Amino acid sequence: MAYPQPKACPTCNQALTVTALSCEHCGTEVHGHFRRCEFCGLDDDERGLLRVFLATRGNIKEIERYLGVSYPTARARVDGLIAAVGATDAGQAEASGSDPTERREVLARVAAGTLDVGVALDLLARM
C-alpha cells in the first residue's frame, strides 16, 4: 500500500529530504539527495483542486461553478492551495509580520466550511 508523502519530519517538523527511490517492478533502488516536488506534498483534496484550477485555467468563477461553492469559498480554497505550494508573495507575509502557518489554517477552515468568510477576513486583518 502506498502512503501519502509526509510533509514534514514527525519528530522536529522540519522539511524532509528524499534520499531513496525504488522500482516496484524489479526492486532497483536509487540513493542520493533528490529535489522535492513542490506538488507531491499536497493532500488528495489539494491535488483535486489543482486539477480543477488547471482545467479552468485559473478562472475563479469557473472553479466556483465546478465545485458548487460560493465565489469567496472558491477564492479561499485557491488561496489555500497557493499557500500550500509556497507560491505566496514572501514579501507580503514578512511586511504583515504574520505567521504563514496561521494564515493557512484560517484559509483551510474557510475552505472546509467551518469558518465564516467575514470572521476569517477579520482574523486575517489582525494578523
The count of helical stretches stands at 6
Strand order of the largest sheet: 1-2
Order of helices and strands: EEHHHHHH
* Structural class based on helices, strands and sheet pairing: mainly alpha
The stretches of 5 or more residues where confidence is low (pLDDT under 50) are 91-95
Largest sheet: 2 strands, antiparallel
Strand content: 5-15%
Tell me the helix content: 40-55%
Distance between the amino and carboxyl termini? 41 Å
Mean pLDDT: 83
> What value does the Rg take, in angstroms?
17 Å
- Shape category: globular
Say how many strands there are.
2
Give a brief outline of the structure.
By secondary structure, this protein is mostly helical. It has helices at 44-55, 60-67, 71-84, 90-96, 100-112, 117-126; strands at 18-22, 29-34.
Description of the molecule:
The chain has 127 residues and is mainly alpha-helical. Helix content is 50%, strand content 9%. Strands 1-2 form a two-stranded antiparallel ribbon. A hairpin with a 6-residue loop joins strand 1 (18-22) and strand 2 (29-34). The longest helix is centred in the middle third of the chain and has 14 residues, at 71-84. The chain is globular, with a radius of gyration of 17 Å. The N and C termini lie far apart (41 Å).
